[in-house]
From TrEMBL:
Record keywords: Coiled coil
Protein name: Uncharacterized protein
Compositionally biased tracts (Low complexity): 36-59
Biased composition (Basic and acidic residues): 62-72
Annotated coiled-coil segments of the chain: 90-117
Region described as Disordered: 1-72
Superkingdom: Eukaryota
Length: 142
């Protein structure tokens, strides 16, 4: 039953249409109808069975649509797809840049740590060198 205008059908035919919709379980857009329930229903109402499907009427309207409109719609679809691909590429490039920056920061941190350890090693080597300098300088004559 249409939502926004009055139906001129009698109340008995309204009930049969409502029963048909309840048995099919159609939702607002008609996507919930199961094929098995349609084939098992054998109603006597001719108005419900002779009514054209919403989907086929929508498709029929597109077939008779102006080629310029169809072309424009296709271009919009392609533009939307291209924009989506560009957004994805932008996201991926930003992600790659962030990963590169994090890698550089990690390398800098490792280099600072290695430099710190090298200074400590150099300090220890200098201490050992100081202790080793006096060795061997004293000669004892026998």
């Amino acid at each position: 039953m249409p939502l926004f205008h009055r139906d001129s059908l009698s109340s008995s035919s309204r009930n049969s249409i409502a029963d048909t919709n309840e048995r099919h379980g159609t939702g607002l857009f008609g996507h919930r109808a199961s094929h098995s329930s349609r084939s098992s229903y054998s109603g006597t109402s001719s108005s419900a069975s002779s009514a054209p499907s919403r989907h086929s009427s929508l498709l029929r309207g597109r077939r008779s649509e102006d080629p310029a409109i169809t072309s424009a719609r296709d271009r919009v679809y392609r533009a939307e797809a291209a924009e989506k691909a560009a957004d994805k590429a932008l996201y991926e490039s930003r992600k790659a840049v962030q990963e590169a920056r994090n890698h550089v920061k990690k390398l800098e941190k490792e280099a600072r740590e290695e430099a710190r350890l090298a200074k400590i090693k150099q300090h220890h080597a200098k201490d050992i060198s100081k202790r080793a300098k006096p060795l061997g300088r004293k000669f004892i004559d026998y």
